[in-house]
Amino acid sequence: MITIHVNTAREYDVLLADGLRSQAGELIREDLYRRRGGSGGKEARQICVVSDQTVSDLFGGREQTLIPALEEAGFRVTTFVFADGEDHKRMETVESLLDHLTAHHFTRTDLIVALGGGIPGDVAGFAAAIYLRGIDFVQIPTSLLAAVDSSVGGKTGVNLPAGKNLAGAFHQPNLVLFDPSVLKTLPPDRLQDGMAELLKAGFIGDPEILRTAMDLQEPTAADPGTPGQNGAAGSDAESFLVRREALLPLIARAIDVKRRIVEEDERESGSRKLLNLGHTVGHAIERCSDYRLSHGKAVAQGMLLVAEAAARRRLCREGCPKTIRQILTRFGFDLCCPFSPEDLAEAAASDKKIRGETITLVIPDYPGPCRLESLPVSELEGFIRDGLEGLPVDVSEGLIRDGVYHSDGD
Ligand code: GLY
């Protein structure tokens, strides 16, 4: 078993091992004894397992491993399942979950278990942060993205009509349990999304992640990407499926990068912003695509765009964008961004989280670590234009047709 101890105001362990779902009950009980001492662990009687429909069907049934394991450890288990998709990461879902908790008489000593990818994790964590002013919760991530990013660090929350993640709380979990066998059922597309966040951790502060990832991954037809040509096709993402079982040490290293940063700046007043590498532009790309392009794929384009712009302005090493492009291409990311600098800058500036005259950008400097740079909002469009010049151009067919973004084959 790999253990990563996160030393935030509330300390906790991230445990990684095959078969952890079948040990979840006893691990949670032991953790409660440690935290609450003596008979304290016995006080927790109930657990609400929160997941979306897909994850519940795969891992959250009474005939599967997790719930019997929790019951064997003496917990009474209820389940709260909501419909799949980002549209359901909203206040109404949290409200229904709070109603479920009150209907089942959950007290401050009971717990929530978030079972799933980023969306169930964010919804369940937010409900845990506010129910009775805060109860304990445990993250059991079932996607690569959730394992390397969203389940660690305590960010919880939901979207508001005005924008993504605008309501939330910092609320660290008691425990994060990652059982890598869950990746077997993860669709290739979702695995690739998680890969973007895993590689992001490498660019932020651990080049060994990138070297090992490149060794594990077979070159694809489109590798290395050549400027001016179409990037690798999404189907190349299939080729790293065989490597799933080899990902665990890389997942652990990526979590450790996040641990270091979160321990230094739990509430994102400074260095935690490094974790947003590729995200300012990535969120703008997602928005311009009307959320048809998924988060990881948009972040991959965002990372390359920022590196290209930074290299043109001599803010990073000359070879940095080329390496980023090679690595992302090896993992099958389509790096053609079909949007104009004007549209991207407008989408980025309308992000409700951007306040004031400047924005903070994360500048990669591979093989060195990333750093933060402030940029006047008025210069964002020029910066994005510089970056777009370095991105591959789609030579096959336009991705924007009839004014609407179409993903491949769409
Ligand atoms: N996903 C970025 C963070 O946790 O700060």
Which SSEs are present, and which pair or pack?
Blueprint: E1 2-6, E2 12-16, H1 24-36, H2 40-43, E3 46-52, H3 53-59, H4 66-72, E4 76-82, H5 91-103, E5 111-116, H6 118-130, E6 136-141, H7 144-150, E7 155-160, E8 163-170, E9 175-178, H8 188-205, H9 207-216, H10 248-264, H11 279-288, H12 295-312, H13 320-330, H14 341-349, E10 358-365, E11 368-376, H15 380-390, E12 400-401, E13 404-405
Parallel strand pairs: 2-9, 3-4, 3-5, 5-6, 6-9
Antiparallel strand pairs: 1-2, 7-8, 10-11, 12-13
Helix pairs in contact: 1-4, 5-6, 7-8, 7-10, 8-9, 8-10, 8-12, 11-12, 11-14, 12-13, 12-15, 14-15
Bound molecules: glycine.
Glycine (GLY) binds next to loops.
Features:
seven-stranded mixed sheet; single chain; 410 residues; 2 domains; binds glycine; two-stranded antiparallel sheet; Dehydroquinate synthase-like, alpha domain; Rossmann fold; alpha/beta
